[in-house]
Structures are given as C-alpha cells and as structure tokens.
User: What shape does this take?
Amino acid sequence: MWRLPGSRAALRGVRTAVGRHTRAEAATETAAGAMERAVVRCVPSEPKLSLSFALADGSHKNMQRDQSEPLGRALSRIATNALKGHAKAAAAKKSRKNRPNASGGACAGPVPEPAAACEPVVKLYYREEAVAEDVLNVDAWQDGAVLQIGDVKYKVERNPPAFTELQLPRYIMAGFPVCPKLSLEFGDPANSLFRWYKEAKPGAAEPEGGSPSSLSPSSPFPSWTETGVNERVYTPSNADIGLRLKLHCTPGNGQRLGPSRELESVCPVEAGPGTCTFDQRHLYTKKVTDDSLIRTVSYNLLADTYAQTEFSRSVLYPYCAPYALELDYRQNLIQKELTGYNADLICLQEVDRNVFTDSLVPALEAFGLEGVFRIKQHEGLATFYRKTKFTLLSQHDISFHEALESDQLHKELLEKLVLYPSAQERVLQRSSVLQVSVLQSTKDSSKRICVANTHLYWHPKGGYIRLIQMAVALAHIRHVSCDLYPGIPVIFCGDFNSTPSTGMYHFAVNGSIPEDHEDWASNGEEERCNMSLTHVFKLKSACGEPAYTNYVGGFHGCLDYIFIDSNALEVEQVIPLPSHEEVTTHQALPSVSHPSDHIALVCDLKWK
Assistant: This one.
C-alpha cells in the first residue's frame, strides 16, 4: 500500500483528539503499541455525526458529516485534511532548520526541500475487512472499527463516555468541599475516575519518581503534585492555601472509559472563615440515617438576587462584610452546610436558577442526592432527595394565583374571595408557588410520601394573603395525597413568613381558622376578607416553635417550619439550632460564618 512520506514520524506520537493524557498514561500506551483514538459521536436524533482525531501537524480535527452521506466522501475529506496536515508539519520543520543557531549564524548545510506529498490512502476497516465506500456513515463508523490514514491506524470509538461540561468553582476555600460541575454523555459520574493535584510549593522537592503531571523546575508552567485524593470531591486543607488545584478526570460508564480531561482552578485556595454556625450541628449528622428514618432539612438560602443589592448592603445587612454577601463566598458555606447534614430530603427556598444548576446540583449530586427545581420569578424552590432511599414518582407543582383562578379544587374558596375585590386583587397579584413531589421508597415500594415545599408571601401586613395561599396549598396537597395517591403521608416544608402567633400557623396546626380572626384584616379594614377555612390534615411542627429561624438587624422570629402528618410520621430527633451566641457573634445574619439570614431546620422523622 502507498504510504504518506514521513507520516509515521509525523503522526506516531500524536495525542488523543479529545482530552489530554498524563505523561505516565501516554508512556503506557506507547509501550503497549496502542492505536490512536478516532472518536465518533452518532445519535439517532441528530442529522450529523462528529468525528475527532489527530492530524499530522499535531492539531486536532473535528469533522461534522451527514449520517446519510456515503462513507467514501468522508474518507476523501479525511485524506485532504491529512495532506494539509503533512504540508504544515513539513513547512514548520523547514522553518526550524532555517532559524539562526545559538551563535547567531544560520544552521550549517543546505536544507533539502521536503518530498512532494501525495494524498494518503485512507480506509476504514471493520473486523479486518475494508468497509465499502457506498455504505452510509451512520452504518460505517462502528465501535471497534479501524481507520487507517497512510500507515497510521486509529481505533474507532463510537459514543464513548464523554464530558459535555466540566467546571471548577471560581472561589475555593480551605476546609470547604470543592464540587466540580460536570455533565456526561454516554457515562455517569459513579463510574468515572478522578484525580486531584495541587501546585507544588515554590522550592519544594519533587516526589521520588516524579508525579504524572509534574514538570521540571525550569518549566514556565506550574509543577503539580498529587493530593492522594481520587474521588469526585476534594476538600482542601490549610496546607493548600495559596496553591491552585488541578483535576484530571476520565469519564466512564461501567464498561469502558472515555477521553480524559484536565482543568485547573482559576484562583488559588483561600483561607476559610474559621468556625461556622453549622459546625456543631454537623456533630449530630455525621452519618446518613438508616432506612427507617428520613432526615429532613428546610432552609431559605437567601437568593443572590436579593443579597446583591445596594439596599441589602446598606439597609438590610449593613453589619455583614460585603465580601460575605457575594455569591461565590456564600456558595462555599451553603455547600458545606448542606452536605454535612447527610440529609435524605432537602427543601430549599430562595434558590436562584443558576445556583441550582451550577452549585447545588453538582455538590449534592456528589453526595448522593438528586433535585428538582420550580422557578417563581427571580428565584424559586428546590427539593432534593437521597437516591439510595427514594425515587421520584411524579411532580405536582402549582402557582397559587393560577390554581386559585382555574382549578375546580379551589372553586369554593374563590367564590368567597370574590366578595372582597380589593383583597382578591392583591392575592392574585402574588407570584408565590408550591412545589409538590411524590417519592417512593427504593427499599419498600409500598412506602410513598408527598413532599411539599413553599415560600409564602413576605409582607408583614400580608397575613390574610398567606392564609389564602395556605388554604390553596393544603387543598392541592390533599388532592395529591388523598385522591391521586390515597393515604400517603405528607411532609410540608417552607418559609411560611408567619410566627406561631399568626392565623396561618393556627390554621395549619388546628385544621381551621374562624372568620373573625384578626389576620383577615391584616392590611386594614379596606382589604378585610372574613371567611372560615378548614383542612383535613393533622399537622404538627416537627421542630416545634424555636425562638427564631430568621435573625436580621431589625427582626428575629420563627418563620420556617417542617409540618408533618402526625397520623403517619413521628419525630425521632431534632438537630439543635445554633446557640444565640453563635448567631450573634457577628451581630446578626448573614455573616462571614453563616450564608443566609435564615437558619436551617433539621430533623429525623420516622414512619409510624
């Protein structure tokens, strides 16, 4: 067979088209005589397939070809690209030889002209037989096929595991877990490989035998040493302060591994804040509970869209250091706090969409939880559940004002409300939502649970609005837990913006509210809307009535609850809240040691 002149020398050491091997991996492959990779991505829902491989000049070629195109056309295009690559490599070699030597003179001796290159023979083989050129691309590029360009062979890998997204957080602190954001195609994190490195300290001796990623001290690039951590999450220590981190990861799916990727942190590790308000609480939650218990968390995170305003900095939280209100800083604290609870259910309020996707999902997924999100306007609700304990059966989210206007469940309530036009207008203007998820036990399929999550209207004079929102919520939850899934117990978490002395709390725990309750006139006589309400549940506040769950400069009070169906669930343990001394160390919340103006409620629940 005709061979491309010089192609063996040009292509022999080319690295994989996607990702980068460490030096040790590359050496192993060379010693074993391994073929280069040609990575093919071909999915039925897309008209084109992609082909990635290395060219003669060391660059990577990424081709997009129609799946319905005959193989011969694709091979012809590859041959043209290979020829161009050879020409570039030859030109670069000539340029190097013409450069002045160290003494200032030109290199001795004439430089021979590179041999004229012909287009190389390009073939695709499957099971040692050449694939006919009229076979369509979709059928030709099979896993395990061999692409030959001149005398260089590539092993075809069709749809190997691959990272479609890989990112390290921008702000990294000692003592706080670093959870990379990653998305995979044809693979999963549990079967992928991770290896963490940190920059070698200036003047530090290289470990005996060297590190796979370390470079010589004279190199302009940083030298890296292994941390010894080969897991998805890395928690830097104080010894890492001032050093950048690097993650080498290889996607996998249990059957095979895909092309590796490396990424480095933008900024070095910074010092942490010291003791945080949740450190003592984590002593009670060191391990995941057994299958008979459900550790539940409810937490208003303080949305970034509210924290990062001039009003927040100067009026709401003037006592809080400005850097401690920044999202990158708070995310480190939130991730560490939530992962340290080892919870089975986590209901969050005031969750920014990008915080859910870029911070919470990567962090909590790495610790075994999966989540769903419901947007409100600028922020929303998130519910996470432990995958080893629960599967998600269905979601039944609603917007209160939309449900009240259109759902027959609330026809009677709406008929009462229309008698008070001013109150009706105010209620229907509110954007509050309810997130409802039905979960099923992975150990016992007969055990199902309805998990509700909400954030009621915030205004201090909005008591009657919260009463109506709660009535809509409980009617909807009754429909899910009694009509759709008869008899399943309820856990209802949220920031209800109501202290234990309010009508909303009275309605929740007593099952009714009289029409003469003072909260029906919470915004004055003009908006008074007297009505009596009832609901069917026997609800109990699992964490009782703490002195406060919200502590800011101008207010403190209990606004957050985990309501449980006391007919089906009981409380095994309530994780103590931070002490008053811890909460007020920096005057109020949020602070450098606490990421929100609310305090998380945490309790262990038990099936009756």
In short: The two ends are 77 Å apart (CA to CA). Confidence is low (pLDDT under 50) at residues 1-32, 207-218. The longest strand covers residues 433-441. The longest helix spans residues 71-97.
